[in-house]
Write a structure and sequence with these properties.
alpha/beta; 220 residues; 7 strands; 5 helices; single chain
Length: 220
């Protein structure tokens, strides 16, 4: 099994993730979020029909809710800044079923990969946790190949004023735990570099939006 969880030399002094979900509450993460997130992640990833030989990066793999979603014929690197999360993810990994998945401790705002390294870049329930969501998405786009796919599942502030007012009312509580309810998708999407292909919810009342986009190909 491929597993590398050593923090690179240049980032050994990084502070732990600011979110309490990814530090103090890591032990509760699986119990709380597996039922809420895992089935949706599995269904959406499998819907991508990732082809054999594709290189995939998951930004913020956490405790590994997505481990069984990726087909074994692709190569996956899962990164996370939280040591606690990666330890729990590693404990779940089975040598027979997850030999195509490698783990690395890394900051989503400073991805240590060359430009255009991956065919698919995914992030599930992460972009509203990081302190600079636009920078995170910019890094995801940078390491994605032209024509490659970006997949995000996350809560974004509703375009409906009433729903936005109600949900944003709990923002002080969610900020204490480490994420914001106020981020709007349109505030981070850059139409110059990303082509939005799908934006949908898996159910009418779901709080979570699935975003599928492709990196614009270079113009001659």
């Amino acid at each position: 099994m491929k597993q590398s969880t050593t923090l690179s030399q240049g980032r050994r002094k990084e502070l732990p993730h600011r979110s309490r979900i990814y530090s103090d509450l890591a032990g509760l993460y699986d119990h709380v979020f597996t039922r809420v997130f895992a089935e949706r992640i599995d269904r959406v990833v499998k819907g991508l029909s990732i082809p054999p030989g594709a290189r995939v990066l998951e930004v913020g793999i956490g405790t590994g809710l997505s481990l069984d979603a990726y087909p074994r014929h692709c190569s996956v690197i899962g990164i996370d800044l939280s040591r606690d999360m990666l330890d729990r993810c590693e404990d779940k990994m089975d040598p027979a079923r997850h030999e195509h998945i490698e783990l690395r401790q890394m900051d989503a705002l400073h991805l240590e990969f060359a430009d255009e390294s991956f065919d698919y870049v995914t992030a599930f329930h992460v972009i509203t946790v990081v302190p600079e969501p636009r920078k995170m998405l910019s890094e995801m786009v940078r390491v994605c190949k032209p024509g490659g796919k970006i997949l995000i599942i996350n809560h974004f502030s509703s375009e409906r004023a009433l729903i936005r007012f109600v949900v944003d009312g709990v923002d002080p509580i969610t900020r204490y735990l480490g994420w914001s309810t106020r981020l709007r998708l349109n505030d981070i999407l850059d139409s110059e570099v990303l082509v939005l292909e799908k934006r949908y919810k898996t159910s009418r009342w779901s709080l979570f939006t699935i975003v599928e986009a492709s990196k614009a190909k270079e113009r001659n």
